From TrEMBL:
InterPro entries: MurNAc-LAA_cat (IPR002508), N-acetylmuramoyl_amidase_3 (IPR050695). One of its GO terms (cellular component) is outer membrane-bounded periplasmic space. It comes from the Bacteria. It comes from Vibrio tetraodonis subsp. pristinus. This is N-acetylmuramoyl-L-alanine amidase. GO terms for biological process: peptidoglycan catabolic process. Keywords: Hydrolase. It holds the Pfam family Amidase_3.
Length: 183
């Protein structure tokens, strides 16, 4: 049995990117997604902790570290110009273990959503919680393998519709990628 931290990106107070048409935010979508991933991993015999950001971003890695988890997966959604589409997973570029976790999750997410494969994206901590930090600080400061899943572009109506309609498949895909890594 492994302990898995599922981090819900952003917070109720700061919802992250949003879809202009229906108002869905990263936080609202990913809270629902985390609630669907957790039982799938528990059914595989793992302990799952859903981590909410009720602290500053710079304190988040330490909160995650305090869980004693074996892996951490942060759930987010991309946004750019309402036209870009696709799935990607980010990992700390100096990690020796996170790229494999990212690869396994990305493979499953792309198969589940059938959106363009934007690949794996290495990130670093050079922006350290400032504008331009795509999660490098979180991934660098956690003690366990940590990735950031960006399964679709929330500002793209078609991507959001696909993700909403396939939320069960998406949650299963993420759970499967995590389980394959830890088992």
């Amino acid at each position: 049995m492994k302990k898995i931290a599922i981090i819900v990106g952003h917070s109720a107070a700061s919802g992250g990117a949003a879809n202009a048409k229906n108002g869905m935010t990263e936080y609202l979508f990913n809270d629902q997604l985390a609630q669907r991933i957790a039982p799938k991993l528990k059914n595989k015999g793992h302990e799952v902790l859903i981590v909410y950001r009720d602290c500053t971003y710079t304190d988040l890695p330490f909160k995650v570290n305090d869980t004693g988890s074996d892996v951490a997966v942060s759930l987010h959604c991309n946004a750019y110009n309402a036209a870009v589409s696709g799935s990607e997973v980010l990992y700390y570029k100096y990690s020796k273990t996170s790229p494999r976790l990212a690869e396994l999750i990305q493979k499953e997410v792309v198969a589940a959503l059938d959106l363009p494969d934007r690949g794996l994206r290495p990130v670093d901590k050079s922006h350290a919680g400032k504008k331009g930090d795509r999660g490098g600080y979180l991934c660098a400061k956690t003690k366990m393998p940590c990735v950031i899943v960006e399964p679709f572009f929330i500002d793209n109506d078609n991507d959001l519709s696909t993700a909403m309609n396939k939320m069960d498949q998406l949650s299963e895909a993420i759970a499967k990628g995590i389980a394959e890594y830890v088992d």
